[in-house]
Design brief:
The complex is a heterodimer of chains A (about 725) and B (about 150). Chain A has about 725 residues and is of the alpha+beta class. Chain A has three domains: about 5-215, Aldehyde oxidase/xanthine dehydrogenase, molybdopterin binding domain (Aldehyde Oxidoreductase, domain 4); about 220-290 and about 350-430, Aldehyde oxidase/xanthine dehydrogenase, molybdopterin binding domain (Aldehyde Oxidoreductase, domain 4); about 300-345 and about 440-720, Aldehyde oxidase/xanthine dehydrogenase, molybdopterin binding domain (Aldehyde Oxidoreductase, domain 4). Helices cover about 25% and strands about 25% of the residues of chain A. In chain A, the strands form eight sheets. Chain A has a seven-stranded mixed β-sheet. Chain A is globular, with a radius of gyration of 28 Å. Chain B is α+β, with helices and mostly antiparallel strands and about 150 residues long. Chain B has two domains: about 1-75, Beta-grasp domain (Ubiquitin-like (UB roll), Roll), CATH 3.10.20.30; about 80-150, DNA polymerase, domain 1. Chain B has helices at about 20-30, 80-90, 100-110, 120-125, 135-150, and strands at about 1-5, 10-15, 45-50, 55, 70. In chain B, strands 2-1-5-3-4 form a five-stranded mixed β-sheet, with helices on both faces. In chain B, a hairpin with a 2-residue loop joins strand 1 (about 1-5) and strand 2. In chain B, helix 2 (about 80-90) packs across helix 5 (about 135-150). Chain B is globular, with a radius of gyration of 15 Å. Classes of the chains: A alpha+beta (about 725), B alpha+beta (about 150). The interface between A and B is large, with 60 and 57 residues.
């Protein structure tokens, strides 16, 4: 136990690192919830006790752990409680998870820290304060027991929700001392366990949310049922940036169930007794749109804009070292390629939805599957024109998120506006078509990569230009100064050693809204870079694996995952007839991941996905089974995009509407996935996104091995490369 | 009044018989386990049983199924249904939204074909899952089939 954590009494925690530098973590001490109606002094022994903002201990010893991040399949409802429970030393079989309240977070000075669920940050960003919350609470419970026994706390220890006084063998249950613990001053020093002392972290415990999920019990956003609630269907202007011009509400007013037609700035909603009635009436509603001059936008114009960006004389330099210009002029082999990646929709299984109630006393409630309950709170407050403290966000389970439900709270704003107009609670649900056509898409992107090689076949220079819309600028998170670090993820921060390197960015501004899509720009940039490296290797007669290793001398973690995946996949060993493989490696969101994809090519050129071998280094492992599930998940999502994903624009409109023209990988097409966790154990990495970026380039590299032709654009279906 | 027999209970509903079964279940009977995903029968999130056959509830109307036995995810017995037990053991769900439909499709498959081959599963399970639970779905179906066989013997 070498991680002493000093606690001041001023509601902050200062942690001394080994290097001696004080690190202010802004950790709130476990200020008890101020329950006006239920004073804690002499607390009722039948009531649960909040010992810490995160932890409620019930008289029956069950423990409720609050979760501030959103459960969207990635397993935070289990992983985050595991972090708390490890240090709390409670009985895991009695742990329940529940959402922390965004309103309470605001009232209690952000006691739950960030509620934003993105960037694969949930574990790595909160592990510190969650483990400390568990440790502090454990010490309070031990202190309360020791005090009751009138023995030194040092003679006591906790395990499985029981405190034992070692010399006498006396025991007390957590539930019996929780009320007394909550009255105590927090300790000034707590110790966090070393990884070799963990008994829960690193084990494949079953997810807390699975029993409900197999019984159809969880409440997703679409399942919210509020008394007096009406249902809304919505149609937004199909042309990006357009507005509602005219609509004929009278034409549908007498249709069954219709209560009201609500005109919004850029959309129109029909409110009815049931969603089916609302949707049917909406389909019959005559509407004309003001297309705001964007009605001519099409794929050709978008391509042209991206190509202009590639051709521009200058762009914003995002990374540079060595003498890239000189390297490009030097004699030697020069290889150049241009790549294209399309717009992609998130297509969460649960379409966008939000239920809102605007109460007469000024309070506002929203029930919403959100990746950021605090953002939903602010959006609802701003839309209703009320103080954020008057807003309560009831975060539901999310039917997928993938980046769609966080920064962009358009569904929350719409629901509040509609509820305001109707004066009753309203559940807004988008149709699948609405969801497909009004996303914040993964940006379409083009890149030009240029490599120069010396006579030994080593890369002497690499130059990359990316032309794409900027997510940060589009979402208003950053001034439009032409630089967007997110745009060059995986390129500007590349880990390969190249003596002369230049990466620049030509920001494109287009009317199509763009946003965070699982693994964000790593998803395109890893394809560009890793597929290009295979091209360079093969054109210079080198094995792609050996070629990569040659540039990873100073990147031990990437090298390690690549070596494991090559070993497990049998890289270099002969393959059966018509079978091919490709590899790729990427570091994103704090973790390192390498994959080998194996395919079998049929005589007609179609192919089957045989298996994906994956090696992942997330640093520490919270739950290995969840890691495997996230690897399978990210690979499925990445393969779907690489094979089929293509949002195209014509007449300013998205041409796709449902799973018939925006198809998904199915069970029949799914390859075997073999996951090898290579946990180097000296950092905390992310898991939701890192296994996604390698899969598209690894698949393209396998196809390249099969056909001898690089894949210059995705999805593969547009390149004549089809699954059998 | 339209009569629906759902999970062994008879319901009288004052609704348009053209209402898709999906919306009759959700908005009129508050059986929210059956999910809307696409509305055109492609994703399978709304899979229920009608007279023990897997049916996509967005494609049939409430009027079509009057007098038939409808079973939704709420009508299964999660503590004894082999498919649900296998789902628990294999930790199949991620976000969980498509899972009721996956489970209903799998229960129907095993009822018709107690020992499905990999190809049988491929053909029968066409439900879409965005989280990528496919490989675990496959393993869980095979595990449930083995368990059923063991019980039957």
């Amino acid at each position: 136990m070498s991680e002493p954590v000093k606690l001041t009494r001023r509601a902050f925690l200062v942690r001394s690192t080994a290097a001696g530098a004080g690190l202010l973590l802004g950790f709130h001490l476990p200020a008890r919830r101020k329950l006006a109606a239920a004073p804690l002094a002499g607390a009722d022994a039948s009531q649960p006790v909040e010992v810490n903002a995160w932890i409620e201990i019930h008289p029956d010893d069950s423990v409720l752990i609050r979760v501030a991040r959103s459960e969207m399949g990635q397993g935070v409802f289990t992983a985050l409680p595991m972090l708390v429970a490890e240090e709390l030393d409670c009985d895991w079989s009695r742990v329940r998870a529940a959402y922390a309240s965004a309103n309470e977070n605001r009232r209690r000075d952000e006691v739950f820290h960030s509620m934003s669920t993105g960037g694969s940050r949930s574990v790595r960003e909160s592990q510190d304060y969650l483990r400390m919350a568990g440790a502090v609470t454990r010490e309070l419970l031990i202190g309360a027991a020791a005090s009751q026994w009138q023995v030194p706390a040092e003679e006591c220890h906790a395990a499985n929700s029981v405190i034992t006084h070692k010399p006498s063998g006396r025991t007390l249950r957590f539930g019996a001392v929780a009320a007394a613990a909550a009255e105590r001053e927090p300790p000034e020093l707590v110790f966090l366990k070393e990884p070799d002392e963990w008994h829960l972290l690193g084990t494949p415990v079953q997810r807390l949310d699975v029993p409900d999920k197999i019984a159809g019990k969880p409440v997703f956003g679409t399942d919210v049922n509020v008394p007096g609630m009406l249902h809304a269907a919505i149609r937004a202007c199909p042309v990006f940036g357009g507005k509602l011009k005219q609509h004929d509400a009278a034409a549908i007013a007498k249709r069954p169930g219709v209560v009201k037609v609500v005109a919004l700035d850029d959309a129109v909603a029909v409110v009815a007794d049931s969603w089916w009635q609302a949707q049917q009436a909406l389909a019959a509603l005559p509407v004309t749109w003001d297309e705001a001059g964007n009605g001519a936008l099409d794929d050709a114009a978008i391509r042209s804009s991206l190509e202009t960006g590639l051709a521009a004389d200058s762009a914003v330099v995002m990374a540079e070292h060595g003498k890239p210009d000189a390297a490009l002029q030097a004699p030697g082999k020069r290889i150049e390629a241009i790549f294209y990646a399309p717009y992609l929709a998130h297509a969460t299984m649960e379409p966008m939805t939000c239920t809102a109630a605007v109460h007469k006393d000024g309070r506002v409630e929203v029930w919403v599957p959100t990746q950021n309950a605090s953002a939903s709170l602010d959006t609802a407050a701003r839309t209703a024109g009320v103080d954020p403290l008057l807003v309560e966000v009831h975060n539901t389970q999310l039917g997928g998120g993938f980046g769609r439900r966080g920064a962009s709270q358009d569904f929350t704003e719409q629901a509040v506006r509609i509820a305001q107009a109707v004066g009753r609670p309203v559940k807004l649900l988008w149709s699948r078509e609405e969801d497909m056509q009004h996303d914040f898409y993964r940006p379409a992107s083009m890149a030009r990569l240029t490599a120069t090689m010396n006579s030994e076949g080593r890369l002497t220079g690499l130059r990359a230009r990316v032309a794409a819309p900027s997510i940060l600028t589009s979402l208003g998170m950053k001034a439009s100064d032409g630089a967007d670090p997110v745009a060059l993820q995986g390129i500007a921060d590349m880990f390969y050693a190249v003596p002369n390197f230049h990466a620049d960015y030509a920001m494109r501004t287009l009317p199509v809204p763009v946003g965070f899509w699982r693994s964000v720009n790593h998803s395109q940039n890893a394809y560009f870079r890793e597929h290009f490296l295979d091209q360079v290797a093969r054109e210079t007669g080198q094995d792609p694996y050996a070629f990569r290793l040659g540039m990873l001398g100073d990147a031990p973690k990437q090298r390690a995952v690549l070596q494991v995946v090559a070993d497990k996949a049998g890289w270099g060993k002969p393959l059966p007839e018509h079978t091919y493989r490709g590899m790729a490696v990427e570091t994103s969101y704090g973790s390192h991941c390498a994959q080998v994809v194996e395919i079998k090519v049929n005589p007609d050129g179609s192919f089957r996905l045989l298996r994906v071998v994956c090696a992942i280094d997330p640093g520490h492992v919270v739950n290995p089974d969840t890691i495997e599930a996230q690897v399978e998940s990210a690979i499925t999502y990445g393969l779907t995009a690489a094979l089929f994903g293509d949002i195209t624009i014509s007449k300013g409109r998205v041409q796709q509407g449902n799973f018939d023209d925006y198809p998904m990988l199915t069970l029949r097409q799914m390859p075997v996935v073999e996951t090898h966790i290579v946990a180097s154990g000296d950092f905390w990495g992310g898991m939701g996104e890192p296994p996604l970026p390698p899969v598209a380039p690894a698949l393209c590299n396998a196809l390249y091995a099969a056909t001898g032709k690089p894949v210059h654009a995705l999805p593969l279906g547009t390149q004549g490369l089809r699954l059998a | 009044m339209l009569q629906l027999n759902v999970n062994g209970r008879q319901h009288s509903l004052d609704i348009d018989p053209d209402t898709p079964l999906l919306w009759a279940l959700r908005d009129h009977l508050q059986l929210y386990g059956t999910k809307y995903g696409c509305g055109i029968g492609l994703c399978g999130s709304c899979t229920v049983h009608v007279d023990a056959q897997a049916v996509r509830a967005c494609l049939v109307t409430a009027g079509d199924v009057t007098g038939k036995a409808i079973t939704t995810i709420e009508g299964l017995a999660p503590d004894s249904e082999p498919v649900q037990l296998a789902w628990q053991a294999m930790q199949v769900p991620q976000c969980g939204y498509c899972q009721p439909g996956m489970i209903m499709a799998s229960v129907a498959l095993l009822r018709e074909n107690p020992s499905p081959t990999a190809a049988d599963i491929d053909a029968a399970i066409t439900n879409i899952c965005r989280c990528g639970t496919y490989n675990r779905v496959r393993q869980a179906i095979l595990a449930a089939a083995r368990k059923q066989e063991a019980t039957d013997v």
